[in-house]
Amino acid sequence: MVKRKPITRRKLSHLVRDRLIEMIENGDIKPGEQMPSEHEIMEWFEVGRPAVREAMQSLESMGFICIRHGERARVVMPTAEVVMDKLDSITRHLLATSPETVFHLMDARQVFEAGMARLAVERGRPKDFERLAELAQCMRDNLDSRENFVKADMEFHMTMAGISGNPVFTAISKAVMSWLLQYHEDLLGVAGLEDLTLKEHEMLLAKLIEKDADAAARIVSDHIMRSNTLYRESMKKS
Question: What does pTM read for this prediction?
Answer without folding.
Answer: 0.76
